[in-house]
Amino acid sequence: MTRHPVERAFELAKSGSFSSIEDLREQLIAENFDNVHGHLVGSLRRQLIVLIAKSRQAS
Fold first, then answer.
1. Pick from 29, 8, 32, 23: which is nearest to 53 by CA?
2. What are the record keywords, sorted (predicted)?
């Protein structure tokens, strides 16, 4: 089963291990996801930024 980069992005954002969307993108690219920049735009990008911030505060 192939995972979608957006699904993985939300998993990573919840981990509390990333301080920015750029760090998260770099990780997705390192995990060989395609078209990372094309997937993480607009409202998805904003949701991930909020989730990263909340996860960092909680950890």
1. 23
2. Plasmid
Q: What is the pLDDT of residues 13-31, one digit of tens each?
A: 999 999 999 999 999 999 9
If residue 38 lies in a helix (H) or strand (E), which one and from where to where?
Answer: helix 36-39
Pull the structure tokens for residue 51.
């989730």
The tally of domains found in the chain comes to 1
Q: d(Cα 31, Cα 27) in Å, to the nearest integer? A: 6
Domain that holds residue 34: 5-58
pLDDT of residue 2: 77
Encoded tokens for 22: 């750029």
